[in-house]
């Protein structure tokens, strides 16, 4: 068995300072420091007063370090798995873009292959973003590939897809929601022009979450509350890109005050320019210009982000003043719950997988552990 000593262990409602975390592939025990006998352990990590938290689960990420989920090569996902632990991530949903179906299928096939392979951060399945979206709120998605929703177009990958982002107002009827529910796929409202009434109806019928709240949807208007109004008026889970570019800190505070903390899901929506310096990049076949770490299309539209999960946690904490256990849950327990894997992942508890990350007060990641194995160690 292995041990981590001298860490501040972030539990769901508290931070424990005088416990030793014992683990193999799973978390075996939280032992009082006074009872710890070092000679009994094969490997001991000294956290040196830093935080130990559950590993982050990113349910919306397109790429990083020069690769994209839509690249039709096994190397793309392999590289993401290898570099994401440096940002505290231990599991993620590679996210596809609006594209022609043959390209989406190739990407989903790569995701399916990567699921179940143990190497670096885990691939839990895919997040299908488009092509069933609103052209009016396509954001950085390619308009020419937007099509009407039909479950039979994706049913071959129903085992792989965990979340579908779509515009519910474009559906002919809600049978699509029933097909998703039967297959354990979460329906997420996003890239949507729906008004408040349409959004409330969709939420009552099958939408359980909203994709990057505020982005790629009508602005919140006091007489036209729209998707944002419906999201704030209900208990749906809301993804948030807390990079201070996609959502102003004041609106992050509004979300924090309006929503229960357990309904906020921090994501990055990052693209291949993430973890790279400024320069020219690409998203969904379109050229992206990254300047001062803000990614835009040629027309100025904000494209995906270059945000990392540890930075998202740091910014949301600093912007809202929320306590660290609550913000950590937004990057671990909350996504684990919605994906139905909270029994095994998403918090530090005896019997759960030893998916852990160690960081300081600035959220600089020092070590990341997946299933008991160290997959990242700062220098
Ligand atoms: Zn996205």
Short account of what is shown:
With 379 residues, the chain is of the alpha/beta class. Helix content is 22%, strand content 28%. It folds into 2 domains: 2-52 and 348-377, Urease, subunit C, domain 1, CATH 2.30.40.10; 56-339, TIM Barrel.
DSSP E strands, number: 24
Number of helices: 9
What does the main sheet amount to? 9 strands, parallel
Q: What is the structural class?
A: alpha/beta
**What is the number of domains?**
2
Instruction: Give the bound compounds.
Output: zinc ion
> What is the terminal-to-terminal distance?
24 Å
Approximate helicity band: 10-25%
The rough form would be described as globular
Overall pLDDT, averaged?
Answer: 96
What is the name of the CATH superfamily of the largest domain?
Metal-dependent hydrolases
CATH architecture of the largest domain: Alpha-Beta Barrel
As for the CATH topology of the largest domain, it is TIM Barrel
* Top CATH class of the largest domain: Alpha Beta
Q: Measured on Cα atoms, how large is the radius of gyration?
A: 20 Å
- Write down the oligomeric state: single chain
Share in β-strands: 25-35%
Low-confidence stretches: none
């Amino acid at each position: 068995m292995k041990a981590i000593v001298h860490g501040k262990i972030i539990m769901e409602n508290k931070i424990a300072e005088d416990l030793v975390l014992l683990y193999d592939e799973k978390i075996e025990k939280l032992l009082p420091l006074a009872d710890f006998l070092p000679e009994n352990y094969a490997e001991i990590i000294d956290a040196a007063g830093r935080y130990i938290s559950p590993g982050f689960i990113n349910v919306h990420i397109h790429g990083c370090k020069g690769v994209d989920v839509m690249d039709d090569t096994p190397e793309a996902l392999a590289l993401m798995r290898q570099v994401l632990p440096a940002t505290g991530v231990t599991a993620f949903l590679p996210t596809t873009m609006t594209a022609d179906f043959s390209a989406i299928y190739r990407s989903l096939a790569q995701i399916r292959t990567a699921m179940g392979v143990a190497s670096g951060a885990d691939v839990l399945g895919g997040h299908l973003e488009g092509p069933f979206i609103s052209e009016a709120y396509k954001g950085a998605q390619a308009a020419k590939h937007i099509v009407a929703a039909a479950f039979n177009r994706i049913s071959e990958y129903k085992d792989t897809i965990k979340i579908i982002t779509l515009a519910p107002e474009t559906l002919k009827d809600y049978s699509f929601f029933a097909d998703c529910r039967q297959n354990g796929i979460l329906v997420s409202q996003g890239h949507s022009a729906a008004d408040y009434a349409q959004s409330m109806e969709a939420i009552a019928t099958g939408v359980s979450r909203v994709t990057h709240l505020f982005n790629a949807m009508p602005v919140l208007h006091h007489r036209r509350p729209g998707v944002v109004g419906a999201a704030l008026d209900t208990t749906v889970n809301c993804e948030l890109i807390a990079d201070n570019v996609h959502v102003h800190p004041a609106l992050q505070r509004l979300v924090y005050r309006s929503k229960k903390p357990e309904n906020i899901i921090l994501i990055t929506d990052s693209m291949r320019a993430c973890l790279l310096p400024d320069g020219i990049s690409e998203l969904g076949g379109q050229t992206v210009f990254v300047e001062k770490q803000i990614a835009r299309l040629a027309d100025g539209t904000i494209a995906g982000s270059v945000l990392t999960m540890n930075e998202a946690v740091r910014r949301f904490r600093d912007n809202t003043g929320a306590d660290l256990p609550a913000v950590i849950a937004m990057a671990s327990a909350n996504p684990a719950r919605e994906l139905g894997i909270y029994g095994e992942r998403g918090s530090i508890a005896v019997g759960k997988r030893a998916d852990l990350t160690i960081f300081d007060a600035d959220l600089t990641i020092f070590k990341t552990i997946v299933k008991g194995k160290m997959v990242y160690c700062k220098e």
